[in-house]
Each structure stands twice: as C-alpha cells, then as structure tokens.
Amino acid sequence: MFVMRSSEGLDDRRKRALWRAWRRGTREMDIMFGLFANAEIERFSEAELGEFEDLLAEQDTDLQKWFMGQVPVPQAFATPLFARIIAFRAANPIG
Question: What is the pTM of this model?
Fold first, then answer.
C-alpha cells in the first residue's frame, strides 16, 4: 500500500503540490509522483517546486509517454528535476 506522507511542517504551496502529486487521475502516475513527492518535496528549491507544479499540470497520458520513452520529452520539461524523477522511479520500481 502506498501512503501520502503527512503535510505537517510544509508551507501551503508544498502541501498543495503534495496533494496534487497523489491525486493525478491514473493510479500509476499517482504512485510515481506521490512517492517522489514524499521523498523530495521538502528539499525542492523554489525553482524546482515551480517545475514540479508545471509537471503536475500536464496530462497523465503525455507524462506516461515521456517517462516510458515513447515520445521525446518536450524541451521545457527536460530538466534536472525530470531526470531526478526518472532516476527515482528506476531506483524505486512500482511493481
């Protein structure tokens, strides 16, 4: 079972991003973004938090294609943060 970490101690912006990470729309994206947010959200710089919020605004179907390498990642999202999410996913397989 996958559980969202407590938002205690997080500022409002991070609380919203954590909540959105766990409520993407597809279970696979919920788990992938949620687990990454659980582990990293406290350490995001303001710029990284903005990038993460931008990713959360994208459609799950597009994100899945980017993460699976089915289509190239748009330049705007080909960031070190995106690479960290990919690395996190590889180190923490979902199933």
Answer: 0.92
